[in-house]
Amino acid sequence: MTAVLEACGVGKHFTKDTSRIVALDACDLQIEEGTFVALLGRSGCGKSTLLNLFAGLSRPSRGEVRYRGTALGGLCPGVGYLTQADTLMPWRKLLRNIELPLELRGVDGDRRRRQAEDLIEMVGLKGYESHYPRELSGGMRRRASLARMLISDPELLLLDEPFGALDAQLRSDMQVELLRLWQGSGRSVVFVTHDIEEALVLGDRVVVLGQRGQVRLDVPVPLRRPRDLDDVRVDATFVELHRRLAAALREGSHDVVTAT
Ligand SMILES: Nc1ncnc2c1ncn2[C@@H]1O[C@H](COP(=O)(O)OP(=O)(O)OP(=O)(O)O)[C@@H](O)[C@H]1O
After folding, report:
1. What keywords tag this UniProt record (predicted)?
2. What is this model's ipTM?
3. How many CA atoms lie within 13 A of 260 on its CB side?
4. Span from the CA of 242 to the centroid of ligand 1 (angstroms)
5. What are the CA-CA distances from residue 26 to residues 36, 59, 61, 211 (Å)?
6. Is the minimum distance from the CB of 134 to ligand 1 under 6 angstroms?
7. If we measure between CA atoms, which residue out of 155, 156, 147 comes closest to residue 174?
8. Is the pLDDT of residue 177 over 90?
9. Domain residue ranges in the chain
């Protein structure tokens, strides 16, 4: 299978005052075209740093990120990136925030409004079109950001804990919607989560990163779709994978982190 994105021996360090922080060290990871890869890892292990590199928002200090086999020199083409930070424009109402990417491309008003309204409905925000971001809850803003990202119809989705702030029911609804958008679309998804069950419900593959982005475990998820959490929770394969992923996460937290 063709890799749409690859981290090849990627290192990334930051300088803060006089210290050097190593966020990633010799990270190797391939994202195959059309697959849904769930990325798990303890806080601070470098997941967001890796997504920033995949998106082309920052450059590796060592190694390279490849897009379709070629070193990425700028922004990654066709990418939709949902960062952890809230990037909605505070002065634009919800509908106008979601329309923005199409407005920037010069899409006519009626067409972009129709698409924005469909996505607003999809993320469960119908009725809030004229609210400003400050008038929405954290979870609603997150869903609005997801809708704004999807309106560009990206071929590659980088999602950094997109559903972390949602209640259990909404989270499950959004997971179903995301899978509906993804399945059969040919899109590739890299989905960062702290939740093992979420990773197993969504992923074709689950990757556990240890400290500094070292891959600790990389396993395919051979569970048939659709996967209803209540049903798969008792599946022996799910239970065994859950156990292995939890162990890899625990192991990852024991890695020694030292600045070099
Ligand atoms: N711009 C920066 N300047 C300095 N250090 C940074 C910067 N960005 C990230 N780091 C450091 O790099 C390491 C990895 O951070 P990163 O945000 O990638 O972790 P993460 O796995 O996404 O964490 P979380 O799950 O908590 O979001 C951390 O030690 C963090 O403090």
Report:
1. ATP-binding, Nucleotide-binding, Transport
2. 0.98
3. 10
4. 26
5. 23, 14, 10, 11
6. no
7. 147
8. no
9. 3-78+156-252, 88-153
Nearest Cα residue to 27 out of 2, 1, 48, 43 = 48
3-state secondary structure the chain: CCEEEEEEEEEEEEEECCEEEEEEEEEEEEEECCCEEEEEECCCCCHHHHHHHHHCCCCCCEEEEEECCEECCCCCCCEEEECCCCCCCCCCCHHHHHHHHHHHCCCCHHHHHHHHHHHHHHCCCCCCCCCCHHHCCHHHHHHHHHHHHHCCCCCEEEEECCCCCCCHHHHHHHHHHHHHHHCCCCCEEEEECCCHHHHHHHCCEEEEECHHHCEEEEEECCCCCCCCHHHHCCCHHHHHHHHHHHHHHHHHCCCCCCCC
Does the Cβ of 212 fall within 6 Å of ligand 1?
Answer: no
| Chain position carrying tokens 């959004």 | 174
Task: Read off the pLDDT of residues 207-259 as tens digits, 9 standing for 90 and up.
Answer: 999 999 999 999 999 999 999 888 999 999 999 999 999 999 998 665 544 33
Token duo for residue 139: 């979870």
The pLDDT score that the predictor gives to residue 255 is: 53
Examine the pLDDT at 260 and tell me if it is beyond 90.
no
Distance of CA 27 from the midpoint of ligand 1 (Å): 15
Mean pLDDT, the chain, integer? 93
Ligand 1, residue 45: give the atom nearest the CA.
Answer: 21
Neighbours of 48 (CB within 10 A): 17
Residue 138 CB burial class (10 angstroms; 0-12, 13-18, ≥19): exposed
Q: How far is the centre of ligand 1, averaged over its atoms, from the C-alpha of 12 (Å)?
A: 10
Is the CB of 45 within 6 Å of ligand 1?
yes
